[in-house]
Amino acid sequence: MKLGIVGLPNVGKSTLFNAMTGAGVEVAAYPFTTKDANVGVAAVPDDRLLVLTEMFDSVKTVYTTIEFIDMPGLASGASRGEGLGNKFLGTIREVAAIVHIVRCFDDDNVMHVSGRVDPARDVETINLELIFADIEVLERRIDKTKKALKGDKGLEKELKLLQRILDSLNDFIPVRTMEFDDDERIFVNSLDLLSFKPVIYAANISDSEAGNTEENDYVKKVRDIAETEGSDVIAIAAKAEAEIAELDDEDRHLFLDELGIEEAGLAKLIRASYHLLDLISFLTAGKPEARAWTIRRGTKAPGAAGKIHSDIERGFIRAETIAYEKLIECGGMTHAKEKGLVRSEGKEYVVQDGDVIHFLFNV
Fold it and tell me: What is the radius of gyration, based on Cα positions, of the chain?
C-alpha cells in the first residue's frame, strides 16, 4: 500500500514523513525544502504479533508495511507546471490514497506560503490543482475516444461517462465525490484520475495541543470540509511525532503519557488508511516467524494464500484458521485444537481481520 503525503509547501509534510519512516529528510522553516519525492517504508503497528511471537517462540516478528511518498510542496499553478508541480503530479498517480497535510497551527517562525494560516483556502488550492490536472487528462481522453467512435459505436457509453465526469470537474467537483455504479467505478479507476483517489486529511496541530481533546477552530474547518466529501480526518502534531519516533519504546511511552497522547500518530494514520481502503490483516505464526499480511476486506482464503506465495494459492486445499481472540483465550494452538476451535475452511471462506491461518496446499 502506497500513500502520498501532499500539501502546500511548509505545512509539515516532511516532518510527518520523518516521524512515520525515520527517513531523516531535510526539514526547514521555509517553502520548497523538498524538491524531489522521498520514499520511505513504515512497519504497521500490531500488538497481536508480539503476543504470537511469544506464544509460538518465533525467531522473527515480521510486520506488514506501508509505503509513504513525501511529495514536493504543491502551490497554485502546479497543474500548469509551475513550481515543482510536474514532479508532484507525476508521482502521485502511483499511490492508492492521499494523505493531505493541512497546517492548523500558528507560528511566526514558520512562514506560510500564502502569508497566513487558512485551512479552507489551503485545501481548496490543492483540490483545484488535482481537478485541473484531471481536466487535462479527460479532455485528451475524450478527443481520443471521439476519433475511435467512428469505427466503434460501443464507445458511445464510455464517451457519455467521460463527458459527465468532465462536466463535474469543470464545476470544481472532485471525482471521488461523484456517484458511479460498479462497472463505471472500474472504468473510472482505470483512468488514474488524481481527484478520484481517496483522501485522509491530517490536521497538523502544535505540540502544545497534542494531548488536547478540544479541537482548535482550524481543525474544525478541516473536519467540515472532509464531511462534505466523505473523507477521514486525523489531528496530528507532526513535530512531536518526529521527536517521539527517535525514542526507544520505554521513553516513547513516557513521552506519550507526558503529552497526554493515548496513541501515536502513525497508528492513527494506519488505522484511518485501513478504513479508507477497506483493508484488514490476517496473521500466520510458527517457529520461523510470526507475521501479518494485508488484504482487502472480502478476500477469500485462496486469495489470502496468494499474498504469501502464488504456489500456495494455486495448490490451495484448505485453511486451518482460528480468530486471534479465541487463540489467546485458549493459551495456544494445542488447546484450541483440543476444544475444536480451529476450523477447516475451504475456497469460499472470506478471511476476517485477525484470523490466524495455516494454509494446506499441494506443491
Answer: 23
CB atoms within 10 A of CB 34: 24
What pairing do the DSSP bridges indicate for beta strands 199-204 and 232-236?
parallel
Q: What is the pLDDT of residues 2-11, one digit of tens each?
A: 888 888 887 8
For helices 85-92 and 119-149, what crossing angle results, to 10°? 70
Nearest Cα residue to 239 out of 123, 101, 130: 101
- The pTM of this model reads 0.81
Interaxial angle between packed helices 156-170 and 119-149, expressed in degrees from 0 to 180 and rounded to the nearest 10: 160
**Residue in the block written with cell 509534510:** 13
Angle between helices 13-21 and 238-245 (to 10 degrees): 30
**Can you list the positions of beta strands (E) in the chain?**
2-6, 38-43, 60-62, 65-70, 97-103, 199-204, 232-236, 279-285, 289-296, 316-323, 343-345, 355-361
Q: Which three cell numbers stand for residue 142?
A: 475524450
Q: Quote the CA–CA distance of 5 and 72 in Å, as a whole number.
A: 9
Q: What pLDDT does residue 87 have?
A: 55
Query: Rounded to an integer, what distance in angstroms lies between the CA atom of residue 197 and that of residue 110?
Result: 30
Place of cell 467521460: 162
Taking the C-alpha atoms of residue 333 and residue 357, their distance in angstroms, rounded to an integer, is 11
- Per-residue model confidence as pLDDT tens digits over 235-249: 888 888 887 777 777
Contacts of 173 (CB under 8 A, 6+ apart): 131
Q: How many C-beta atoms surround the C-beta of residue 71 within 10 A?
A: 26
Task: Give dist(CA 283, CA 52) in Å, integer.
Answer: 9
Distance CA 265, CA 240 (A): 9
3-class secondary-structure state, position 247 = coil
Which residue intervals of 278-354 are DSSP H helices? 301-308, 310-314, 324-330, 333-338
